[in-house]
Amino acid sequence: MSLHTWLLYVSLAGAVIASPGPSALLCATHAARYGVRPALATIVGGMTASMTLMGLSALGLGAVIAASDMLFQAIKWAGAAYLLYLGISTWRQQGDKNASAAAQSAKPLGEQPAEQSSSGNLSIWRTWGPLYRKGFVVGIGNPKDLLFFSALFPQFMDASAPVAGQLGVLALTWLVLDGCIMFAYSLCGATFLARLQHGAAGRWFHRVTGGAFIAAGGVLAASNR
Questions:
Q1: Contact of 53 with 114, CB cutoff 8 Å
Q2: What Å distances lie between residue 70 and 67, 75, 87, 193, 207, CA to CA?
Q3: Where are the alpha helices (DSSP H) in the chain?
Q4: pLDDT in tens, 121-176
């Protein structure tokens, strides 16, 4: 792979990842509600979804998804339905009791308390699983990523060169970009959005974020390739 091809891939992949969407919103809201550290599970879930789509593309199944309108529509509607579910459940939440934990988690690591109760650690670890699953489901049903990996990604693969090395470079590049950009969204969520969850403002915070998920689901359902 030439340097020019790699730089083009970095620019396109970075633009796709950085553009605001359901995954970015999910990372920001999870960081605001649970804190930056638990929200890492959401980021990893989205990265796993991206690697799954990349693997399908490398196997040639991405072209099948792109060519099959029925399959693409099924994935799109499933993603839209899940976003609507997230929006409704978020809308119905009250002021978040985890706001203080989110604000604490947003502090630099050196400012974190040295001791935590075992029950607090257990609660955090139990949170990671659901956050990971949500990040994965939202990521795997994102048509923006589906189109990128099915239509654009194969263009960066040179059939005359070893596939494994190229795939490793492209995958590592995507993971670094995805992790850094989504982590930035999480920091913004924990720093700014968490402050809105205190008291009566918490109800409006959940209504706004829930409405954003509902709107994203509606846009996804109405979108065409």
A1: no
A2: 9, 9, 26, 38, 33
A3: 3-18, 22-34, 36-58, 61-67, 69-91, 99-105, 118-140, 143-147, 163-188, 201-222
A4: 555 567 788 899 999 988 887 777 777 887 778 778 777 777 788 889 999 999 99
Please list, residue by residue across 33-52, b when 16 or more beta carbons sit within 10 angstroms of its beta carbon and e when fewer do.
Answer: bbbbbbbbbbbbbbbebbbe
Q: In the numeric block, which tokens belong to residue 88? A: 């409704």
Provide CB contacts within 8 A for 105, sequence distance 6+: 31, 34, 35, 36, 37, 38, 112, 190
What tokens were used for 57? Answer: 């593309």
Q: What is the rounded distance in angstroms from the CA atom of residue 42 to the CA atom of residue 127?
A: 10
SS3 call for 195: helix
Per-residue tokens: 151: 């239509």
The maximal CA–CA distance of the chain, rounded, in angstroms, is 61
Q: Give the predicted TM-score (pTM) of the model.
A: 0.71
